[in-house]
Amino acid sequence: MEKKLKTCLTSIRGKTDFSPKVALILGSGLGDYADGIHIETTMDYTEIEGFPVSTVKGHKGRFVFGYVGEVPVVIMQGRVHYYEGYPMTDVVLPTRLMGLLGAKQLILTNAAGGINGTFCPGDFMMITDHIAVGVPSPLIGPNLDELGPRFPDMSEVYSTRIRTVIKEAASACQMNLKEGVYVQLTGPNYETPAEIRMCRSWGGDAVGMSTACEAMAARHMGMEIGGISCITNLAAGMSKQKLDHMEVQESADRVSKDFKRLITRIIET
Ligand code: HPA
């Protein structure tokens, strides 16, 4: 196994033998979900030898191990982004670690800009597929054969089974769930209106700076994936408003109650 991955895994295993079934990555403004679950133990990223640590405001950096209902989960409260300057292999290292700790399912969440004209700020979008041609693949480099194949299939990154679970959960929570294709670009700048028109013509419904790379790494190692975007704003050029991170966080905060209900329902199912 890659040395850094092994070092981190050994470091975590020196502190806990918790065995999660489901892994959850929380996006911008959605991080406080982890504070409300039954927490078994937490681990700051800084405690883990060799671990890439996030620098973005509003991103707490720790793993939370605990239970949602009866389900043992590991939650990433704060993720690492490519725009921070880390190589892609570092960006997806936490995802791989959660897989190696035993999680077979991964629920990815993020804040995203709406490209689809029918979306409104505050909507949730179930990710049906992604476009990640704007960022380098995290699988570039020597293949980690013990994790997965050199040329992994990506024809069903977001599992049909989990998508059904997400839809049923939304319906049980009486929430109007949108669905669509997530486009990952590098950031950290927001897009230009022309870039958004390009993303739309590609078939994108929402745009953000994370998630697809993590999904690729998780799919590579055979994890079953679900994804939900919180549409925090209309993408560039779609409204008169200029984009800023505060708006993104405020929108995510506004719907965080609904988000918590939905995620809890999904994991319990
Ligand atoms: N673009 C990119 N990333 C984002 C956006 C956006 O409009 N909103 C939240 N994350």
What is the topology?
Elements: H1 3-13, E1 22-26, E2 38-44, E3 62-68, E4 71-77, H2 88-91, H3 93-100, E5 105-114, E6 124-131, H4 160-172, E7 177-184, H5 193-202, E8 206-208, H6 212-220, E9 224-234, H7 245-254, H8 256-268
Parallel strand pairs: 1-4, 1-5, 5-9, 6-7, 7-8
Antiparallel strand pairs: 2-3, 3-4, 5-8, 6-9
Helix pairs in contact: 4-8
Give an overview in words:
29% of the residues lie in helices and 25% in strands. With 269 residues, the chain is an alpha/beta fold. Helix 4 packs across helix 8. The longest helix has 13 residues, at 160-172. Hypoxanthine binds next to strand 5, strand 8 and strand 9.
List its traits.
binds hypoxanthine; 29% helix; 269 residues; five-stranded mixed β-barrel; 8 helices; alpha/beta
Structural class: alpha/beta
Radius of gyration: 17 Å
What's the total helix number?
8
Strand content: 15-25%
Q: Helix proportion of residues, in percent?
A: 25-40%
> What is the multimeric organization of the chains shown?
single chain
CA(first)-CA(last) distance: 33 Å
Q: What strand line-up does the widest sheet have? A: 5-8-7-6-9
Order of helices and strands: HEEEEHHEEHEHEHEHH
Most strands sheet: 5 strands, mixed, barrel
Bound molecules: hypoxanthine
Number of strands: 9
Low-confidence stretches: none
What general outline do the C-alpha atoms trace?
A: globular
Mean of pLDDT: 93
